[in-house]
Amino acid sequence: MDAARVQIDGGNAAGVINLETGITEKVRKELEEMGHIRPNIKRGWDRQIFGTGQVITRNPNSGVLCAGSDPRQDGSAIGW
Fold this sequence. Notes:
Blueprint: E1 6-9, E2 16-20, H1 25-33, E3 40-42, H2 47-50, E4 54-58, E5 65-69
Parallel strand pairs: 2-3
Antiparallel strand pairs: 1-2, 4-5
């Protein structure tokens, strides 16, 4: 949940690509070489651009629940 994210502004491949802090300069350059408009690196976390979330997974063999909450925003994931 806390991995750096990529977002296309405009909803298509021609849109501007926003990169969260943590996406490497190498990846940014590779995106440019692929023809994308110069990707914008957004410093810090911008939850309005990249969104947030919570997740709960269930191990199908044991039934054990595992939950995670995005550190970009207050929230919790609880399974019972």
